[in-house]
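Example S7 (structure tokens).
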């Protein structure tokens, strides 16, 4: 088969996977250098973003940013959540709970936390936006680094060396500080490296079935009632950054419910949340999403 035909085939079959891949994390604001006091640095960031958190296009206290370079993509969300830091840390410091979060994403097919001598690994399968056999999906293995949790600060980091479609060096980081009135300020960041083969496959997807997809950042001043949003790779990053943030908040919403009620609440909450942004995030109807995710959850439980 000719190389262009291979690319077109990859675009059709892996379009959903490509969408998922453009979500992983590092700090867009340049936090590559360690800070002696990360809690103080995050509070400074909160003060800097306070005006944007009060007034933005999302209708909630949230700021979303994205960047891309020749070999790396990044997404970044800062947000206020109506949960105390202790709840955030207790829930998201547990690797099993990260699987509860990840499975809400439309492209995640499976997640299992496995403890070993060198620590805990999250085995995550990703694929298309439709029901899919695990054998047809792709595996990413994240190392779950021990969470940092104090009365004032929480941090957890997930790393993966290898990924599908020419991707590598995944880094997922969530940090949070306590705010007054039993709230917390979250900072979620995503990044990974992509090589030339992966870049070609992504650009093919963006030129075909993904050509009408947009992100959340305005590409130009709004004209009339129709906003002009960015597309391309940054649009992919922004859509998936938002999907994962909404998965985190959906998980937190259900954390105090009876165990047997938590899954359904998370699924319903996540779908309702993404549908607030239909132009960017709508992919299927509620019934189709719920049936797919309930089946994936059952498969996941059976495999443990």
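Recovered sequence:
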């Amino acid at each position: 088969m000719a190389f262009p035909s291979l690319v077109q085939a990859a675009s059709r079959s892996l379009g959903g996977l490509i969408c998922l891949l453009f979500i992983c994390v590092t700090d867009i604001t340049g936090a590559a250098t360690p800070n002696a006091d990360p809690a103080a640095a995050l509070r400074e960031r909160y003060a800097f973003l306070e005006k944007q958190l009060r007034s933005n296009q999302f209708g909630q206290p949230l700021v979303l940013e994205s960047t891309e370079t020749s070999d790396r993509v990044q997404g970044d969300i800062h947000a206020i959540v109506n949960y105390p830091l202790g709840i955030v840390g207790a829930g998201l410091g547990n690797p099993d709970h990260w699987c509860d979060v990840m499975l809400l994403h439309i492209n995640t097919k499976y997640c299992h936390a496995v403890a070993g001598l060198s620590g805990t690994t999250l085995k995550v399968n990703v694929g298309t936006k439709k029901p899919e056999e695990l054998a047809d999906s792709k595996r990413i293995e994240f190392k779950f680094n021990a969470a940092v949790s104090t009365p004032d600060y929480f941090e957890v980091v997930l790393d993966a060396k290898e990924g599908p479609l020419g991707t590598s060096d995944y880094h997922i980081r969530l940090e949070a500080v306590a705010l007054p009135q039993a709230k917390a300020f979250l900072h979620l960041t995503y990044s990974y490296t992509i090589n030339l083969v992966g870049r070609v496959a992504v650009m093919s997807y963006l030129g075909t079935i993904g050509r009408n997809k947009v992100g959340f950042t305005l590409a130009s001043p709004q004209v009339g009632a129709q906003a002009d949003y960015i597309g391309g790779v940054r649009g992919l990053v922004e859509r998936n950054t938002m999907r994962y943030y909404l998965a985190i908040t959906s998980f937190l919403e259900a954390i105090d419910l009876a165990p047997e009620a938590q899954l359904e609440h998370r699924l319903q909450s996540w779908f309702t949340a993404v549908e607030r942004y239909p132009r960017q995030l709508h992919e299927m109807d509620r019934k189709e999403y719920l049936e797919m995710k309930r089946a994936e959850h059952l498969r996941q439980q059976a495999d443990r």
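Notes on this example. DSSP finds nine helices and eight strands in the chain.
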